[in-house]
Specification:
Blueprint lengths: L2 H27 L4 H18 L18 H6 L8 H12 L19 H11 L2 E5 L2 E4 L1
Helix pairs in contact: 4-5
Length: about 140
């Protein structure tokens, strides 16, 4: 291979590498929000095409979602994770409306109050009906 051919291949390699790094960096940084918008649009189309036609339920209008976000936590003067007492008060407020079902999905990735407090609160609220062999039985 001649020196001219070698320089040409080397230049092509470096220009391809720099171009790839540039566009890869743009794709990762997503400065214009295109990647996020495309993801949201893709999910929306998928849900309309796959989930929408088969999930026509009157229950959709009867479901309420309670979001525990930073605004709620600051309103009740708590910090994350919110105390079990605050959770019990929130659940009591929800149960006052006599819903047919309640689904809780709480994720704690770090330590919380002592586990015995959970059972004492559940017993206080009447959600634990008996103790058997040291294990609590839920209603």
């Amino acid at each position: 291979m001649t020196r001219v051919g070698y320089r040409w291949i080397k230049g092509l390699f470096y220009s391809t590498l720099l171009t790839s790094l540039f566009w890869g960096g743009i794709a990762q940084l997503d400065p214009f929000g295109i990647k996020a918008a495309a993801s949201i649009q893709s999910e929306s189309v998928f849900m309309r095409m796959i989930g929408g036609p088969w999930y026509q339920s009157a229950a959709q209008d009867k479901i309420t979602v309670v979001l525990i976000d930073d605004n709620y936590i600051s309103q009740i003067k708590e910090s994350w994770p919110i105390s079990y007492i605050a959770q019990e008060m929130l659940l009591s407020d929800i149960l006052a409306f006599k819903p047919k079902a309640v689904f809780l999905d709480l994720l704690y990735s770090h330590n919380h109050e002592t586990p015995n407090l959970v059972f004492s609160l559940l017993a206080w609220s009447g959600l634990i009906c008996s103790h058997r062999n040291g294990r609590e039985t839920m209603k």
